[in-house]
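Run log // design_07
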C-alpha cells in the first residue's frame, strides 16, 4: 500500500522555471530542481508533458530556474502555478529580466537564478526530465529559500495538478477530516482550485481579514489569495 503523504517528506525547494521560443514566453512553478554534476555544472528540472512550458522548452532547448525565497507574496505562486500562459500573461505583473540566453528570468521574490542550455531529455512518463548545462547564474539575495515543507505548512496548499508530487484531493480528504475531528480545529474552508485553506482563527491579514473572522462574514468580493478564485469556489471542510 502507498501512503501518498510520505511523498511530502522528501525534501524539495520551490522554483520558477521559464523559457521562450519565437517571442512566446512560458513559466511555471516547479518543485523539482537539482544539481546533477559539477563538471560541467548541470541542473535537472521536471516538466509535465501537458504544461504549455514543456513544448516551449523542447523547441528552444533553453530554460531559466529562479529560486523562490521563504517569505513572499503568494500571488506569484498562484499566477505561475495555477494559471496557463494560454489565457493569462504570467509576466505582466511580476518582475523579470531578459537573460544572457534571451529567455525570461524571474527576479521577484527570488534569491538566485540560473540560465541553462538543455543537453539531454529523459521521458519519464507523465513528465519530461530536462538536464541543462548552466551558462549563467546570479545570486540575488541572502534570504532563506522557500522549501516545499514550509509551503505546505504555511499556506496549506495542494500541489498544482501537473506537479510531479500532485495527489488527488480525495486521497487526502479522509485524513484531513480525521485531523480536524481529533484536534477540534475551527471550521475551515478550502479553495477547490488551488487547495488554499482559510482558517477562521488565523484570518487572512494579507487581504485585510482579521483573525477570528468567520468565512460567512468575508466580503462578497473576497478572493483566494493564491489563485484569485471567488468565494463560490470554497468548500467547508
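design_07 sequence
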Amino acid at each position: 500500500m502507498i501512503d501518498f503523504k510520505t511523498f511530502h517528506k522528501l525534501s524539495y525547494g520551490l522554483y520558477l522555471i521559464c523559457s521562450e521560443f519565437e517571442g512566446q514566453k512560458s513559466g511555471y512553478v516547479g518543485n523539482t530542481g537539482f544539481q546533477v554534476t559539477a563538471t560541467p555544472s548541470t541542473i535537472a528540472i521536471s516538466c509535465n508533458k501537458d504544461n504549455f512550458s514543456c513544448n516551449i522548452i523542447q523547441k528552444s532547448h533553453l530554460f531559466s530556474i529562479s529560486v523562490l525565497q521563504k517569505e513572499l507574496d503568494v500571488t506569484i505562486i498562484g499566477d505561475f502555478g495555477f494559471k496557463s500562459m494560454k489565457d493569462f500573461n504570467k509576466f505582466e505583473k511580476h518582475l523579470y529580466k531578459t537573460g544572457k540566453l534571451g529567455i525570461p528570468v524571474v527576479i521577484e521574490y527570488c534569491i538566485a537564478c540560473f540560465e541553462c542550455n538543455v543537453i539531454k531529455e529523459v521521458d519519464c512518463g507523465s513528465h519530461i526530465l530536462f538536464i541543462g548545462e548552466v551558462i549563467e547564474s546570479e545570486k540575488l539575495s541572502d534570504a532563506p529559500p522557500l522549501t516545499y515543507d514550509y509551503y505546505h505548512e504555511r499556506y496549506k496548499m495542494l500541489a498544482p495538478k501537473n506537479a510531479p508530487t500532485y495527489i488527488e484531493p480525495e486521497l487526502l480528504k479522509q485524513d484531513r477530516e480525521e485531523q480536524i475531528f481529533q484536534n477540534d480545529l475551527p471550521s475551515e474552508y478550502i479553495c477547490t482550485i488551488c487547495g488554499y485553506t482559510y482558517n477562521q482563527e488565523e484570518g487572512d491579514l494579507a487581504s485585510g481579514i482579521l483573525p477570528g473572522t468567520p468565512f460567512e462574514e468575508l466580503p462578497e468580493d473576497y478572493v483566494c489569495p493564491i489563485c484569485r478564485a471567488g468565494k463560490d469556489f470554497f468548500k467547508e471542510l
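The longest helix spans residues 169-183.
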